[in-house]
Every structure is written in C-alpha cells, then in structure tokens.
Amino acid sequence: MMMVWFFFLGLLFGSFYNVVGMRLPKGESIVAPPSRCDNCGRRLPAWELVPVVSWLVLRGKCRSCGARVSVVYPLVEVATGIFFALAFLHVGLHWELLTGLFGVSVLVVLSVADLHYQRIPNKILYPSMVVLVLLRALSHPLGIMTYVEGAVIGFGVMFLIALISRGGMGFGDVKLFFFVGLFVGLAGTLMTLFLSSLIGTLVGLSMRVAGKLKPRQPFPFGPSIGLAAILVYLYGEVWLSLYFHML
Ligand SMILES: [Zn+2]
C-alpha cells in the first residue's frame, strides 16, 4: 500500500522535475511565472497540470492553439512515479531511502535538462554532488569506500573516453559519472558504464532507423546514463549475484 503512495508522490515530483529541468538551465525561476503553453503563451489552469491525466485527456495538445505537448512530460512523470515506488520497495523505510529518492530525482532532472538543451547544467550538478556527499556520509550500505572509488573511477574512465573520442563525449557526462559513482558504488559504476552505453547505442540506432537522427548527429547521452544508474541502484546487486552464480 505504501508503494502506491510513493508512486503518486513520484508522479507529483516528476511533474515538478519537468519544470526544474526546463527552467533552471535558462536561469528562470521555478515558481514563477505559472506554467504556460510554449506556443501560444496561454496560462494553464490547475486541471491541465494534473500529472499524466491532463496530457491523456488533452491527447497531448494545447486546448486553444493545438500545439503538440511533448510525450516527454508524461513519460518523465510516470518514470519518476515508478522509480520512487521501486526505491521504497528496494530500500524500505531507512535513511538510505532519502539517498535513493534524492539520487533518482537528480538523475531525472538532469536527463530532462539534457534532452531539452543537450547539456548537463553545472548549476544543478554541483550542488547535487555536495548534497550526495553529505547523504553518503550518513548512509553507505555498501561501505563508504566503494562510493568514493566509484566516483573517482567513474570520472576517470569517462575522462579517458572523452579524451579518446575528442568531443564525441561531452564533459557534462564525465562529471555526471562522479555523481553516479557516489550513488551506486564501484561495482555499480562499472555496471552503469556498460548498461548506459548499451542503452545509448540502442536508442541511437532506433532513432536513426526511425529517421529522427542524421548520421553523425550527436544526441544527449545523459538520459541513458541516468536510466542505467537508477536501474543499477535498484537491481545491480541482483544482477551481480546472478552473474557470480553463472561462473
Ligand atoms: Zn497553446
């Protein structure tokens, strides 16, 4: 039952993270002005801002001008709801749940920002790193050293990849792996490196097949890293033990 509440909490927060990820990188306030249609500027009444439901009722269009409202909005809301519920299921009512919900939240906000602006804004990433360091000092279920090692090695490996790829990999993604390391620990970081490149490759290929991406056109890698890190946070230990069982 508690899980359902965490799902609804996640829906509400997800709706807020859409706003944060869209507005903070542009230096806008996240509380004012109230939400408007990007196209016609009409102010949206409360009933048009209900997570997921409003998007479905309005079939993804603005009621007055008919402009499309991106499917990213409801997807971010549902995903945040599911991640919150799973974090509760995975961690239970423990200090670590605070870290879990915080990590999920930051990764969702940064993914939204990266999708819209093709960059990972430092003004969100840096303060988030500081908060995560403090949270990790309080709660470190895998032992504190593994989180330090994850951060250093995740950053180091990505830094090398960025050097070798000469701009193919953004420096924002490199710094993001410092956060990921603190969040999931060393083994989790290595799994996230692998899983995020798998997700990124699949997404890139299918976008190319669908004709939504020109050859050599870059696309944001942050959302793949965010999704991979969250999945590893939730299920990494299960995968690791399965792997060692097979050996
Ligand atoms: Zn409109």
Q: Explain this structure to me?
A:
- The chain starts with a helix and ends with a helix.
- The mean pLDDT is 93.
- It contains eight helices and no strands.
- The chain has two domains: 1-93, no CATH class; 94-247, no CATH class.
- With 247 residues, the protein is mainly alpha-helical.
- The protein is globular and about 60 Å long.
- It has helices at residues 2-23, 53-57, 72-91, 95-117, 122-138, 144-165, 171-209, 222-246.
- It binds zinc ion.
Distance between the termini: 38 Å
- Tell me the number of structural domains: 2
- Low-pLDDT regions: none
Rg (C-alpha, Å): 19 Å
- Mean pLDDT, to the nearest integer, reads 93
**Small molecules in complex:** zinc ion
Tell me about the largest β-sheet: none
Q: Structural class per helix/strand content?
A: mainly alpha
| N-to-C SSE string, H for helix and E for strand | HHHHHHHH
List the defining traits of the structure above:
70% helix; globular; binds zinc ion
Short recap of the structure:
This protein has 247 residues and is mainly α.
